[in-house]
Amino acid sequence: MTAPKTLYDKIWDAHVAHEAEDGTCLLYIDRHLVHEVTSPQAFEGLRMAGRKVHAPDKTIAVPDHNVPTTLDRANPETMTQDSRIQVDALDKNAREFGVHYYPVSDIRQGIVHIVGPENGWTLPGMTVVCGDSHTATHGAFGSLAHGIGTSEVEHVLATQTLIQKKSKNMKVEVTGKLAPGVTPKDVVLAIIGETGTGGGTGYVIEYCGQVFRDMSMEGRMTVCNMAIEGGARAGLVAPDETTFNYVKGRTHAPKGAQWEAALNWWKTLYTDDDAYFDKVVTLKGEDIQPVVTWGTSPEDVLPITAVVPHPDDFEGGKIEAAKRAIEYMGLTPGQKLTDIEIDTVFIGSCTNGRIEDLRAVADVVKGKKIKDGMRAMIVPGSGLVRAQAEEEGLAAIFAEAGFEWRLAGCSMCLAMNPDQLSEGERCAATSNRNFEGRQGYKGRTHLVSPAMAAAAALTGRLTDVRELA
Amino acid sequence: MKKFETFTGVAAPMPLVNIDTDMIIPKIFLKTIKRSGLGVHAFDEMRFDRQGNEIPDFVLNKPAYRKSEIIVAGDNFGCGSSREHAPWALADFGIKVVLSTSFADIFFNNCFKNGMLPIVLPQEQIDLLMQDAEKGENARMTVDLEAQEITTSDGDVIKFNVDSFKKHCLLNGLDDIGLTLEKSGAIKSFEENAAQSRPWV
Ligand code: SF4
Question: What is the predicted ipTM?
Answer without folding.
Answer: 0.92
